[in-house]
C-alpha cells in the first residue's frame, strides 16, 4: 500500500492507461505545458509528448465535440474540463452526440470517451464557479457517471472509465485533489456501478457521493458518540446506480438520510430518496430525509457559502428527525 | 505640443491619468488585502492593462453608453465611475459591496454607471453585450456598448456567433480584445490561427483595427473612431495589445513566462510613460502629480477602511435577490 493524494491517484491512472494503450490521449485547457489547472496531468506532456497530451484553446464546445469524433473513429480520448461549470458550454456535444451516437446508429458506433474535471463548490468562487452539476449528466441515458470520493476509487474508476466502451463522465472536486488515502501498488480496477460501504451500522443509512463524504463521516463519528450506529454508503457511481447496496442497507436500518451538495430539485439526491421510498417503503420507520445544497446560486461571502452547503450539523439534525430523537 | 495632446483639453488628459492611477492603486491594495486574507478565491488584477479601460471608457457618454466585460473587471468598473468603496467592499464580501458581497471580485456590477459586469465564464459576456446593444438599437437611443474580452476568450464559439449577429443586425457595439498575451498559462500565439486578431473582423464584413494598449491616447483615439462608427450602426473589432503584470489570478506561480518578459513590459509602463509625456509637454507638474497620487492613495485607503468596517451580509441574504 502507498499513501497518495487523489490528484496523484488520477495522474497514476492516466499514466498507466496511456502507457498501456496508445489510443488513449488527454485533451483540454492547460493540460500540457501548465501540467493541468489543478496539476492532475503533471509530467504527462514530457512523457507522452504533445500528440497525446493536447493543450487546447478555450473552446469547450469544440474540443469536447472533437473528442467525440475521435472516439467514434477509433481513439479513446480523455477530455479534461477545467471545471464542470465550463462543461456547460459543451453540454450539447455530450448530451446530443456522445450519449446518442451508439443508439442512433443502431449500434454501429461506439463512443469510448471519458469527460472529467472538478465539480461542485470550492471556496470563495461565487455563483458561476461553485455548482454541483451531477444531475446534468446523471439525467441522460447513454452516459455513465462516476464520482469517486477516495484516492483508491479515483484511480480504479478512472482506469475503468478509460477502458469502458461508453461515454463516462467523472465528477472530481477541487478540494478533494489534496485528500490522501491508501492506494495499492498493485494495479486494480474499481467497477463502474458498485457502491462502497464506507462504514457499517444498524440504526440509519447515510447515502452520499463525492466530496460530502467527509461531512457524512464526521457526522457518523459524532452520532456514534451518542450511541447511534450509522451505516455510510459512498455511491461511487451515479449511473448506473447500485440499487442493491442501497436497498439492502435500508432494509437493515429502516431509516435513511441522503446527503448531496447539489441543489434539491431534480437532483441525484432527490432521485435516490425516491428510489429508497419506492423500494423500501414497507420497512421504513420514517420518511427519507434529503440534506442538499440550499436552493440558491452560491454567494461569494464565505459565511453565506458555508451556510449554503451540507454540514455536519445539518446531517445530524436530519438523522435526529428520522430517529424521532431530540438528543442526538 | 504634439497633435495628439493638442486634441484633448488638459482636464481630459488628467481624467485619463486619474483613472489609470486609481486602478493601479486599487489593484495594488487589493493584492495586499488578498495576502492578508481579506479577499478570497479568484482575484484577477488588471495592473499593466490600465490604459485600455481608461482610454476606451473615457471616450464614452455613460448617460447612454454601456460597458460589459469578463472577470478581470475591477479596472472597467472603476473607469465607469464605480465608487472604490463599493468595489473594495465587494472584494471583502461585505454587504456594502456593489453586489452585497454575493458576487466578489469577478462579479462587479454597477447599473447606475452603466457597467453590466463582471462575467466569470470565458466568452459568456460577449453575446450578452450584443443584447445590450440590441436593446439600445431597439429603443432608438444612439448609445453604444463596449464589449471587452481577452485573447483567450477569442476562441470561444460565442465570439464568432456574436460577430456575425452584430454585423447582420448593424448593432451599435465595439468588440475590444484586450490581448494581454496570456490566457492563464497559454501564450496567445500558441492557440491562435492568426497573429493579428483584427484581421478576423474582415471575415464578418466588419472593420478591424489595432491599437497600442500601453498608450492611453492611442487606445482613446482608436476607440473614439470605432464608437462613432458604432453609433451609425457599424460594429467593429479593435485589438489592444497589452500585458498583465501579475499572475492570472492570485495563486499562479507563472512558470510559463520569464522575469525578463515582465520587466521588459514594466519598463514600458502605460502610466509612467503617459505621465512623463505629460510633463515633457509641460501639462503636468511634479506638484500636480504628487497631489494626484496622494489624493488617490487617500481615496483607496478610505475604501479599505470602509470595507473593513462594513458588516457581513445577514444569513437571510442567502435567499434574497434570486427572483423578482
Ligand atoms: C468557459 C470557461 N472556460 C475556462 C475558464 C477558466 N479560465 C478563466 S480565465 C481563463 C483564461 C482567459 O484568458 P483571456 O481571455 O486571455 O483573459 P485574461 O485572463 O488574460 O484577462 C480561463 C481558461 C472559464 N472561466 N470559463
Ligand atoms: Mg489574456
Automatic annotation (TrEMBL), chain A:
Q: Which InterPro entries match?
A: THDP-binding, Transketo_C/PFOR_II, Transketolase-like_Pyr-bd, Transketolase_C
The record's listing under SMART domains reads: Transket_pyr (SM00861)
SUPFAM superfamilies, from UniProt?
Answer: Thiamin diphosphate-binding fold (THDP-binding), TK C-terminal domain-like
What this protein needs as a cofactor is: thiamine diphosphate
Q: Name one GO molecular function term.
A: pyruvate dehydrogenase (acetyl-transferring) activity
Source taxon at top rank:
Bacteria
Q: Which UniProt keywords apply?
A: Oxidoreductase, Pyruvate, Thiamine pyrophosphate
The UniProt entry, under CDD domains, shows: TPP_PYR_E1-PDHc-beta_like
The first-level EC class reads: oxidoreductase
Q: What is its EC number?
A: 1.2.4.1
Q: Which residues form the Transketolase-like pyrimidine-binding domain?
A: 4-179
Write down the NCBIfam families for this protein, in alphabetical order.
PRK09212.1, PRK11892.1
Q: What is this protein called?
A: Pyruvate dehydrogenase E1 component subunit beta
Q: What organism does the record attribute this protein to?
A: uncultured spirochete
Amino acid at each position: 500500500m502507498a499513501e497518495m493524494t487523489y490528484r496523484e491517484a488520477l495522474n497514476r491512472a492516466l499514466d498507466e492507461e496511456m502507457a498501456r494503450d496508445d489510443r488513449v490521449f488527454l485533451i483540454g485547457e492547460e493540460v500540457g505545458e501548465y501540467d493541468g489547472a489543478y496539476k492532475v496531468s503533471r509530467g504527462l506532456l514530457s512523457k507522452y509528448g504533445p500528440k497525446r497530451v493536447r493543450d487546447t484553446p478555450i473552446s469547450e464546445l469544440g474540443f469536447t465535440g472533437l473528442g467525440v469524433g475521435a472516439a467514434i473513429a477509433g481513439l479513446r480520448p480523455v477530455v479534461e474540463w477545467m471545471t464542470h461549470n465550463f462543461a456547460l458550454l459543451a453540454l450539447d456535444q455530450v448530451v446530443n452526440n456522445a450519449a446518442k451516437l451508439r443508439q442512433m446508429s443502431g449500434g454501429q458506433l461506439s463512443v469510448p470517451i471519458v469527460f472529467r474535471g472538478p465539480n461542485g463548490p470550492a471556496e470563495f468562487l461565487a455563483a458561476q464557479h461553485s455548482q454541483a452539476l451531477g444531475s446534468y449528466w446523471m439525467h441522460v441515458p447513454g452516459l455513465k457517471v462516476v464520482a469517486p470520493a477516495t484516492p483508491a476509487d479515483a484511480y480504479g474508476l478512472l482506469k475503468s472509465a478509460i477502458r469502458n466502451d461508453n461515454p463516462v463522465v467523472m465528477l472530481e472536486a477541487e478540494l478533494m485533489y489534496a485528500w490522501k488515502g491508501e492506494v495499492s501498488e498493485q494495479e486494480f480496477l474499481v467497477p463502474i456501478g458498485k457502491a462502497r460501504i464506507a462504514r457499517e451500522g444498524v440504526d440509519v443509512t447515510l447515502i452520499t457521493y463525492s466530496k460530502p463524504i467527509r461531512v457524512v463521516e464526521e457526522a457518523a463519528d459524532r452520532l456514534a458518540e451518542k450511541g447511534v450506529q450509522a451505516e455510510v454508503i459512498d455511491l461511487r457511481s451515479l449511473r448506473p446506480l447500485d440499487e442493491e447496496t442501497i436497498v439492502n442497507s435500508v432494509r437493515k436500518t429502516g431509516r435513511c438520510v441522503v446527503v448531496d451538495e447539489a441543489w434539491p430539485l431534480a437532483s441525484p439526491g432527490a432521485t435516490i430518496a425516491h428510489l429508497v421510498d419506492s423500494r423500501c417503503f414497507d420497512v421504513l420507520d420514517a420518511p427519507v430525509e434529503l440534506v442538499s445544497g440550499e436552493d440558491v446560486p452560491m454567494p461569494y461571502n464565505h459565511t453565506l457559502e458555508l451556510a449554503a452547503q451540507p454540514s455536519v450539523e445539518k446531517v445530524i439534525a436530519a438523522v435526529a428527525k428520522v430517529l424521532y430523537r431530540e438528543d442526538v | 505640443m504634439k497633435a495628439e495632446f493638442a486634441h484633448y483639453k488638459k482636464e481630459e488628459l488628467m481624467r485619463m491619468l486619474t483613472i489609470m492611477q486609481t486602478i493601479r492603486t486599487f489593484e495594488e491594495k487589493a493584492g495586499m488585502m488578498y495576502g492578508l486574507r481579506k479577499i478570497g478565491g479568484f482575484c484577477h488584477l488588471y495592473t499593466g492593462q490600465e490604459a485600455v479601460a481608461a482610454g476606451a471608457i473615457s471616450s464614452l457618454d455613460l448617460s447612454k453608453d454601456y460597458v460589459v466585460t469578463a472577470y478581470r473587471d475591477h479596472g472597467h468598473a472603476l473607469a465607469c465611475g464605480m465608487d472604490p468603496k463599493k468595489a473594495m467592499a465587494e472584494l471583502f464580501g461585505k454587504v456594502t459591496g456593489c453586489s452585497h458581497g454575493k458576487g466578489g471580485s469577478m462579479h462587479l456590477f454597477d447599473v447606475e454607471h452603466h457597467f453590466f459586469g463582471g462575467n466569470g465564464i470565458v466568452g459568456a459576456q460577449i453575446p450578452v453585450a450584443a443584447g445590450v446593444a440590441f436593446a439600445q438599437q431597439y429603443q432608438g437611443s444612439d448609445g453604444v456598448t463596449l464589449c471587452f474580452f481577452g485573447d483567450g476568450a477569442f476562441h470561444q464559439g460565442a465570439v464568432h456567433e456574436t460577430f456575425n449577429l452584430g454585423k447582420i443586425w448593424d448593432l451599435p457595439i465595439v468588440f475590444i480584445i484586450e490581448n494581454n498575451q496570456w490566457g492563464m498559462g497559454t501564450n496567445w500565439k500558441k492557440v491562435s490561427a492568426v497573429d493579428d486578431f483584427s484581421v478576423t473582423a474582415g471575415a464578418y464584413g466588419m472593420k478591424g483595427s489595432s491599437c497600442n494598449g500601453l498608450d492611453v491616447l492611442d487606445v482613446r483615439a482608436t476607440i473614439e473612431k470605432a464608437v462613432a462608427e458604432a453609433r451609425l450602426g457599424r460594429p467593429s473589432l479593435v485589438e489592444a495589445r497589452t500585458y498583465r503584470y501579475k499572475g492570472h489570478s492570485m495563486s499562479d506561480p507563472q512558470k510559463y513566462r520569464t522575469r525578463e518578459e515582465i520587466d521588459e513590459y514594466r519598463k514600458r509602463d502605460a502610466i509612467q510613460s503617459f505621465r512623463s509625456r505629460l510633463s515633457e509637454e509641460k501639462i503636468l507638474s511634479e506638484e500636480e502629480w504628487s497631489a494626484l497620487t496622494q489624493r488617490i492613495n487617500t481615496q483607496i485607503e478610505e475604501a479599505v477602511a470602509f470595507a473593513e468596517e462594513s458588516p457581513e451580509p445577514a444569513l437571510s441574504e442567502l435567499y434574497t435577490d434570486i427572483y423578482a
